[in-house]
Write a structure and sequence with these properties.
Chain lengths: ~90, ~160
């Protein structure tokens, strides 16, 4: 089971939009049941990320203690294929 | 005017929250003017104005879509009285910092200021917008609206999808 942490400024707005889009893509690609999602504020990432396998966020984070992938593409659709590929690679590790 | 459809996208929108040919000095000035208007209309508390400006400095909200640059300034729920969205179509594009990519600018043609009161149903609203804005012609059509009512009607149709 891979643990994914999704973060944005307040852990409410853009992270929820990213989370729901990402969840749909993961499930559509056969990852259902193989991952867990959690959501937090960007300020909590340094302390929380060590217990996660991957962090996806809508803003840069300085002290991430797990692999990090920028999640803006889930909002705009631009570069989404690349972002999704990177996430798949992390989940298959 | 309230939109309440099956998805409970219960965000208030009113011609009073819409600006056409909107002019501002820069990104912060635009946000300040839109926030002050929402405060004047009783939609948000006075504290919303400084909170949304601070928030934009820390976590910028410019987003580059294929068709146009947009910004979605927003801040914490405690500054909001009524869930609402304010829209400004800019007379001249303004440069905003791109979300997640410090140092990258987005040429913003339309601003969607979100006054979010309760996290979940209104975030669904954001999700719907992001999905619609990726579709061909949607942002261009909103930006080319000739009146507040035209923009409002187009926006309403997007939310009902």
């Amino acid at each position: 089971m891979k643990k994914i942490l999704v973060a944005c400024g307040a852990g409410v707005c853009t992270s929820t939009a990213v989370l729901s889009k990402m969840k749909k893509i993961l499930d559509d690609n056969g990852f259902k049941g193989q991952y867990e999602l959690a959501q937090c504020k960007i300020a909590e990432v340094p302390s929380k990320s060590s217990s996660f396998d991957l962090c996806v966020a809508t803003t840069m984070v300085s002290e991430v203690k797990c692999p990090f992938i920028m999640g803006i593409a889930f909002l705009t659709g631009r570069g989404l294929e690349d972002t999704v590929k990177k996430i798949f690679t992390e989940l298959k590790k | 005017m309230i939109f309440q459809d099956d998805n409970s996208l219960d965000m208030h929108i009113d011609p009073k929250y819409i600006f056409m040919d909107f002019e501002a000095e820069n990104d912060m000035d635009a946000i300040k003017k839109m926030a002050a208007n929402l405060n004047k209309e009783g939609v948000v508390k006075e504290s919303f104005i400084s909170a949304i400006l601070e928030r934009e400095k820390k976590f910028c909200t410019g987003l580059q879509f294929d068709e146009a640059g947009i910004a979605i300034p927003h801040t914490d729920t405690q500054h909001v009285n009524l869930p609402a969205v304010s829209i400004a179509v800019l007379k001249n594009p303004l440069s905003f910092q791109e979300m997640g990519t410090p140092g990258t600018k987005v040429n913003v043609e339309i601003i969607f200021m979100l006054a979010i009161k309760a996290a979940h149903s209104q975030v669904e609203f954001l999700q719907t917008l992001m999905t619609e804005f990726q579709k061909n012609g949607v942002l261009t059509s909103l930006i080319q609206s000739e009146s507040k009512n035209e923009l409002l009607n187009k926006f309403k149709i997007l939310l009902r999808k």
